[in-house]
């Protein structure tokens, strides 16, 4: 029997998506779970999988059409059966806008011919790399990027400086003193926010204005966790090595077993406690961030959890994710430790009841038995919806989390 494939709803605030490309054409065979089309939402380009096996009998919308969620987009059936396309499909889709109002372009600023500057336009570079290049008068077009998709990142700029110094030493002559740099004045620039940035803005405004947040911070002794991670990574292949965040995700998932009220969503006037524990993990992308979802994180081994998160993060950064990658989290983690952030508070991702903000691991002076000694500490802050829980329960959660983070063998037993 023919089956209709609908535009999926990815996130409770998604209203429509743009059908970017049909991967399968009419008359082609498709298996259940195979990619049928690519759609673009406010957050990402997502691969839509076929919900049935058979022959693609009818494509109901054109490439480039903006389609409301739950609208039929294709019919899959057997090669010889008679089918009738859903009558609502043609009227539901609308062409994607072909033009948009662009902000006024800033007037060009003259630049001295002798001073190479950072190049914008087709050169792909992170915002930090662009700033360093601009301040250091480095031509980005001459640098090979080592980031995802050839993107130029900070280490590429620093590597260019190192090579320049090595070339000077190899030449046997001291490097001449750099002339005083004349930095040109820059004009104001109006930048149109990306669809992802606009979506993040809407969600965060809604969260901060409708969800009564409260925050609790706890400091953890993670010396044993770092030691266990070193032992693990010593026997793992390079692409299988575990991150500190992998341990944190597993520890949070196991702790949530004891606190089902925090693994919950507010559903109208009732609290929906989720049976499974699916941890949302914030991943930084160009122009914002996306949350990938590790399902049943409490039941996965550390290597299994790590491999799954790496694969999802890679798909996110390539701009192509699966619907399951970003939908269905029950509690979230935002980790900025890799940016040397000591501690911070994160905004709750509705309709979840909480989010954990994780800072960096730091070697600091600590007092033990009256003596000052070095020790490894990490701060984490939980943000909780006060309509769902209260300070005492959140404090107990943070104490229970310490059992797993400070006695990490419990994560593998």
Topology at a glance:
Elements: E1 3-6, E2 16-22, E3 29-30, E4 35-40, E5 45-49, E6 54-59, E7 65-68, E8 72-77, H1 89-92, E9 94-95, H2 127-136, H3 154-170, H4 195-210, E10 213-221, H5 223-235, H6 244-256, E11 264-267, E12 270-273, E13 279-285, E14 288-294, H7 302-317, E15 320-321, H8 323-326, E16 331-335, E17 354-368, E18 371-385, H9 391-406
Parallel strand pairs: 5-15, 13-16, 16-17
Antiparallel strand pairs: 1-8, 2-4, 2-7, 3-6, 4-5, 6-8, 7-9, 10-18, 11-12, 13-14, 17-18
Report on the structure:
The chain is globular and about 85 Å long. A 6-stranded mixed β-sheet has the order 9-7-2-4-5-15. It has a 6-stranded mixed β-sheet with strand order 10-18-17-16-13-14, with helices on both faces. With 413 residues, it is an alpha+beta fold. Residues 98-121 have low confidence and may be disordered. Helix 2 packs parallel to helix 3 (154-170). The relative contact order is 0.11. It has helices at residues 89-92, 127-136, 154-170, 195-210, 223-235, 244-256, 302-317, 323-326, 391-406; strands spanning 3-6, 16-22, 29-30, 35-40, 45-49, 54-59, 65-68, 72-77, 94-95, 213-221, 264-267, 270-273, 279-285, 288-294, 320-321, 331-335, 354-368, 371-385. A hairpin with a 2-residue loop joins strand 13 (279-285) and strand 14 (288-294). It starts with a strand and ends in a 7-residue tail after the last helix. It has 3 domains: 3-95, RNA polymerase II/Efflux pump adaptor protein, barrel-sandwich hybrid domain (OB fold (Dihydrolipoamide Acetyltransferase, E2P), Beta Barrel); 108-171, E3-binding domain (Dihydrolipoamide Transferase, Irregular), CATH 4.10.320; 195-411, Chloramphenicol Acetyltransferase, CATH 3.30.559.
